[in-house]
UniProtKB/TrEMBL annotation:
Keywords: ATP-binding, Cell membrane, Membrane, Nucleotide-binding, Transmembrane, Transmembrane helix, Transport. The keyword Transmembrane applies. One of its GO terms (molecular function) is ATP binding. It comes from Herbaspirillum chlorophenolicum. It is found in: Cell membrane. This is ATP-binding cassette domain-containing protein. Pfam families: ABC_tran, BCA_ABC_TP_C, BPD_transp_2. Gene3D superfamilies: P-loop containing nucleotide triphosphate hydrolases. The chain crosses the membrane at residues 31-51, 88-106, 113-129, 159-179, 209-227, 247-275, 287-305. InterPro entries: AAA+_ATPase (IPR003593), ABC_AA/LPS_Transport (IPR051120), ABC_transp_permease (IPR001851), ABC_transporter-like_ATP-bd (IPR003439), BCA_ABC_TP_C (IPR032823), LivM-like (IPR043428), P-loop_NTPase (IPR027417).
Length: 595
């Protein structure tokens, strides 16, 4: 263990010990109350870190989920005299169901429409709270009892402060655990599009809903604590203004960092409080002037420091965390592999039309285990489209694609990935801030011990240590296999393009494929890197791997491949060994215009 690592483990423990000890250290009640609110807001902000900062799904509506948690317990404890703990369970259930329903609709929406839709349902829920007779309309509900546990009543500010911070710490640990799990890495990739995670076997639509529901439940729990701290609720703290404040906390603190949520909640709560006191005096009139300051701060942060403050603090004091790779982890299970020479991919009369344009015109070819096949042709020939038909990114118009004797036409990318086909991308698709090791581990997503849903819960509770150990050991093994074994902890974004392409191959190898599809693997590589890549692919071929590659670098293709398929204007114009292709009249015509 390095010094940084010791400090990284020790600092949070010391920090939380100090936070929980503050009431005993004689800190005045005013500060304890203020810090209680910091804790409450931090719980909501942690959900937003996951949703907005990490996955890139902006939500202005989290305050409404706080409201559902608060109103549920307020109603049940005051109208029916139920225990606050039942109020908590009911609040979690109702928040979860509402989020599931809202998420199922809104998480499909992309771009600017998603934040707009979160404003819409945030407002709807706010007006619902304010207009329902049974919820006391805009006056709300008063007389909410205190929480008690084993005869102890959380009746005063100090005991609630401790309870709130215990929950905030548990929330932080759970979100941190989740982000370092198999599902968490998939969520960290979502911001960069769904094509790559889907190709690794991730159900991205489901994953978005899962984190939406989790973020909503955290907000609901914060609402439950709020109701029993205040002993009264009304719609105001659950409106759009608070929704924006939560977002501001996350942006200022550091949207993609769990500690950013705490920092942002602390700064904005304190600042809001003091501005509320100072500004009216300064300006000589009453009003919510802090909202103006916050609005300006939001714009400035988004423009000049959209990573927030935490990354700067982390760089100075904490350093990057390193993932531990156990030396004795057992290997992951492998799919049965075909014998060398067995035909594993058959493309028969594959056709793809985009409206009137025939991008792939009844193309047929096959790939055997232990063979490297090159798919070449001038720009716009239809190579990438053919590739995307095999990988399930595009749906086939007509024709067949069979993998090991079974049709894969019409299957999604993730179903195809689970059959044993792995790919790399023409434009490298890595998660730049994630380490080389974690990026490679993305490939082993569907090889974990738990089913994806079970994996999420296990990740939250850190019950996935065995699985993580095996996945990380596999990622390390594949990185060593491709020659990146000495770069495990470096952020993927800091690698040269050639190394990033090799990293994509290591990630694909973690998928446990029998067929590797490489989209322009040599593009942008220097001579030495190309030689290293050739060597690696030849080695994989020797181990029985089938490789289909789309490539423009003729020298690379001619030296490496066993068989070449040439396309032009969507049609296959030639097929054969590199020697045959180099003298094929139709190929010479296509490339050199017959010269
Ligand atoms: N989604 C799409 N919608 C409409 N047309 C498309 C789409 N994707 C590709 N095409 C068209 O299909 C044809 C084949 O494109 P494709 O990208 O497969 O060629 P390519 O051989 O991979 O070219 P390059 O070497 O430049 O990548 C081109 O005319 C392209 O404009």
């Amino acid at each position: 263990m390095t010094n940084t690592l010791t400090l990284r483990t020790l600092l949070p423990v010391l920090f939380f010990a100090l936070v929980l000890a503050l009431p005993g250290l004689g800190v005045p009640p005013f500060w304890i109350t203020l810090l209680s609110y910091v804790g409450l807001y931090a719980i909501v902000a942690l959900g937003l870190v996951l949703l907005t900062g990490v996955a890139g799904l902006t939500s202005f509506g989290q305050a409404a989920f706080v409201g559902i948690g608060a109103y549920t317990t307020a109603y049940l404890t005051t109208h029916y005299g139920l225990s606050p703990w039942l109020g908590l369970l009911a609040g979690i259930a109702i928040t979860g169901v509402c989020a599931l329903l809202i998420g199922a609709v809104t998480m499909r929406i992309s771009g600017h429409y998603l934040p707009l839709s979160t404003i819409a349902w945030g407002l709807s829920l706010y007006y619902l709270f304010g207009n329902l007779e049974s919820l006391g309309k805009y006056d709300g509900i008063g007389g909410i009892p205190s929480i008690s546990m084993a005869g102890f009543e959380f009746g005063n500010g100090t005991s609630m402060y401790v309870l709130i911070w215990v929950v905030a710490i548990l929330a932080l640990v759970s979100v941190q655990n989740f982000l370092n799990s198999r599902a968490g890495r998939a969520v960290r990739a979502l911001k960069f599009g769904t094509v790559m995670p889907e190709a690794m076997g991730v159900d991205t639509a489901r994953m978005k809903i899962v984190i939406f529901v989790y973020a909503a439940i955290l907000a609901g729990i914060s609402g439950w604590l709020y109701a029993h701290l205040q002993h009264a609720v009304n719609p105001t703290p659950f409106g759009l203004k608070y929704g924006i404040d939560y977002l501001l906390m996350v942006v200022v603190g550091g949207a993609a960092h769990v500690w950013g949520a705490l920092l942002g909640a602390g700064l904005i709560t304190m600042l809001g409080n003091f501005l509320q006191e100072w500004l009216p005096g300064l300006l000589g009139s009453e009003g919510n002037f802090e909202a103006v300051v916050f609005g300006i701060a939001l714009v400035i942060f988004l423009q000049y420091a959209n990573e927030g403050l935490w990354p700067h603090i982390q760089a100075r004091f904490a350093g990057r965390s390193k993932v531990r790779v156990p030396a004795d982890a057992p290997p992951l299970e492998q799919l049965p592999k075909p014998a060398t020479g067995e035909t594993i991919l058959e493309v028969e009369a594959a056709r793809k039309q985009f409206g009137g344009l025939v991008a792939v015109n009844d193309v047929s070819f096959s790939v055997k285990a232990g063979e490297i096949v090159g798919l070449i042709g001038p720009n716009g020939a239809g190579k990438s489209t053919t590739f995307n038909l095999v990988t399930g990114v595009l749906s086939i118009t007509s024709g067949k694609v069979n993998y090991r004797g079974r049709s894969i036409a019409g299957l999604s990318s993730r179903q195809i990935a689970s059959r044993g086909i792995a790919r790399t991308f023409q434009h490298v698709r890595l998660v730049p801030g994630m380490s080389v090791l974690e990026n490679a581990a993305m490939g082993a997503y569907r090889r974990g011990d738990f089913a994806p849903q079970g994996g999420i819960l296990a990740g939250l509770l850190r019950l996935n240590r065995g699985e993580e150990g095996k996945i990380m050991a596999e990622a390390k093994r594949q990185l060593e296999r491709v020659g990146l074994g000495d770069m495990l902890d470096r952020p993927a974004g800091s690698l040269a393009l050639g190394q990033q392409r090799i990293l994509e191959i290591a990630r694909a190898l973690c998928c446990d494929p029998a067929l590797l599809l490489l989209d322009e693997p040599a593009a942008g590589l220097r001579l030495k890197e190309k030689e290293a890549l050739s060597e690696l692919l030849a080695k994989l071929r020797g181990e029985g791997m089938a490789v289909l590659l789309v490539e423009h670098d003729m020298d690379f293709v001619m030296r490496l491949t066993d068989h070449i398929v040439v396309m032009e204007f969507g049609t296959k114009i030639a097929e054969g060994t590199p020697a045959q292709i180099q003298v094929h009249p139709a190929v010479l015509e296509a490339y050199l215009g017959g010269v």
